[in-house]
Write a structure and sequence with these properties.
It is a single chain. By secondary structure, the chain is of the alpha/beta class. It has one domain: 3-Layer(aba) Sandwich (Rossmann fold), CATH 3.40.50.620. The chain has eight helices and five strands, in the order βαβαβαβααβααα. α1 links the parallel β1 and β2. α6 packs across α7. The chain is globular, with a radius of gyration of 17 Å. The C terminus is likely disordered.
């Protein structure tokens, strides 16, 4: 009997690759996306398409308005998304986001029940977010097993990060080997109303560099390209 797994799915490149890998492992996948007050809905639209394309047992959209607090360029429209690399932790960091997301995933996993939770965090090609590091994931897994009934009485929870030590190019090659079509994913922090990427934010730069290093064509729809070829 196939095991169940909760997979965090943003609709971006990394989370989509993670879902594909979990499917390959034979898990019954339960995808979890968040309406957290982000400045655009392009990723969530992509998440719907990804979940439908790859096939999941259930896809939940959890409402969670982190924009109520603000503090990030992704949840506060008054804070511009940087178009150049910055020093330190960037303003696109959303306070405690992965802590909150994993906590919600943990709650759903306990109900299903599912002892495996997958998240596509990466500690190599990332923007400097502290909640993408192996130390954080290990600490959260320990907390999950200390603070839940399942952790005490049942099978221990495991937080899986299959992309944690891969470069963006390695992630892309892995996804392509699994048959992924990355044109259905959205990674941009500032896409336009048609879901076309800005090409300048951290997420776009890392994504574009990954395709270049992987030596494959970048299927991303960029705003500039759309304008020049219209």
């Amino acid at each position: 009997m196939a095991k169940k797994a909760v997979v965090l799915l943003s609709g971006g490149l990394d989370s989509t690759t993670t879902l594909a890998l979990v499917k390959q492992k034979g898990y019954k996948c339960y995808a979890l996306s968040f309406l957290y007050g982000q400045r655009h809905g392009a990723e969530l639209n992509a998440a719907r398409i990804v979940a439908d394309t790859l096939g999941v047992e259930d896809h939940q959209f959890f409402p969670l308005n982190l924009a109520q607090f603000g503090g990030s360029a992704l949840t506060d429209q008054s804070i511009p998304v940087p178009n150049e690399p910055t020093e330190g932790i960037p303003v696109t960091y959303v306070p405690a986001r992965n802590t909150i997301f994993l906590s919600v995933a943990l709650g759903w996993a306990e109900v299903l029940p599912a002892s495996d939770i997958f998240i596509g965090v990466n500690a190599i090609d990332y923007s400097g977010y502290p909640d993408c590091r192996p130390e954080f994931i290990a600490a959260f897994e320990k907390t999950a097993n200390l603070g839940t009934r399942t952790g005490i009485e049942g099978e221990p929870f495991r937080i899986h990060t299959p992309l944690i030590d891969k470069s963006k190019a390695e992630i892309i090659r892995t996804g392509l080997a699994a048959g992924l079509d990355y044109s259905i994913t959205v990674s941009c922090y500032s896409p336009d109303g048609l879901g076309r990427a800005c090409g300048a934010c951290d997420a776009c730069r890392l994504r574009a560099a990954g395709f270049e290093e992987a030596g494959v064509a970048d299927p991303t729809r960029y705003q500039e390209l759309a304008r020049t070829t219209a």
